[in-house]
Amino acid sequence: MSDAINKCSAQETAACCCVDVGTVMDNTDCTASYSQVFTNQQQAQQALMTLTDKARAVESDPCDINSSINPVDGGFQLDVDFIFCCQAETLIFQLGLR
What we know:
- This protein is of the alpha+beta class.
- It has helices at residues 41-58, 87-96, and strands at 12-13, 18-19, 31-38, 64-72, 75-83.
- It is elongated, with a radius of gyration of 14 Å.
C-alpha cells in the first residue's frame, strides 16, 4: 500500500525524510490526513483497519479518526483524518508509514 499522508508543516530533508533538527513542535499540526483510491471497497476497508491499528499504537490519548469510503471512477476512495492529542504523535504516526 502506498501512503498518501499529507506532509506535516515541519521542514523535511527530501533525501532521507528526516525532520530538521531546528523544527519547532508547537502542537499546531496534530492532524494527519490520508487519501487513496483502491480497486474495491474491501481493500479500502482493510487499509482503514491497518491505518487505525497504527494510529492506536502511537496514541497516548484516544486519536479522533474521521473516515469515509466513497465510490469514484476507478474504485473506492478512502479519506481519513487522524487527529492526535499532540504534534509529536502525529509526526511519529506519519514517519511510521514511510
